[in-house]
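Inverse folding, one chain.
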């Protein structure tokens, strides 16, 4: 399998948001197209995509840092192409992107309803960090 991993372009928006929906990563309170545009336009964030030989987007990761830690979001592999190493390649690409910018630690959040993926991240060297995540909306939702 030959994968080309690169930064998403504006033209990838439809394919990327379709993949996120197909992978069950979208929720009512986040518009995926807005998320895609915001991360692509950020000074310290990016959406990386994996293209199959035919050019189709088969994997994604949203990556960014907050000046301290690196974060991964929207790690996804095409449902028809899972268990082929695409997810691992996306995580590795996100890690590379962060390392190149001097970030020394990467973190991510797993929804309580998606705990099956913990084993996936553990195979890639991640460990469960006992923390309480607190959050607050800064706009009306
Ligand atoms: C999670 C996801 C990205 C994994 O992608 P993938 O391409 O299927 O995974 P890979 O083929 O790269 O697997 C890498 C390793 O993790 C293991 N693995 C993959 N999915 C796993 C799972 N659900 N449970 C346990 N292990 C898993 C594989 O066996 C493989 O290990 P190996 O190399 O020793 O065989 C993919 O299942 C997906 O898109 N899921 C829906 C979206 C999602 O939940 N994303 C995570 C949000 S936090």
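Residues assigned per position:
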């Amino acid at each position: 399998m030959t994968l080309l991993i690169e930064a998403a372009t504006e033209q990838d928006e439809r394919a990327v948001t379709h993949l996120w929906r197909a992978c069950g990563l979208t929720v009512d309170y986040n518009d995926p197209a807005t998320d895609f545009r915001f991360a692509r336009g950020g000074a310290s964030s990016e959406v990386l995509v994996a293209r199959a030989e035919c050019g189709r987007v088969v994997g994604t990761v949203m990556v960014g840092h907050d000046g301290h830690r690196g974060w991964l979001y929207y790690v996804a592999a095409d449902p028809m192409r899972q268990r082929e190493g695409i997810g691992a390649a996306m995580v590795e690409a996100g890690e590379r992107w962060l390392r190149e910018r001097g970030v020394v630690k990467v973190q991510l959040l797993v929804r309580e309803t998606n705990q099956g993926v913990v084993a996936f991240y553990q195979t890639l060297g991640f460990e469960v960090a006992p923390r309480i995540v607190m959050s607050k909306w800064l706009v009306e939702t």
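Residues 23, 25, 75-77, 82-88, 110, 114, 116-117, 119-120, 123 surround coenzyme A (CB under 6 Å). Helices lie at 13-22, 32-40, 86-99, 118-123.
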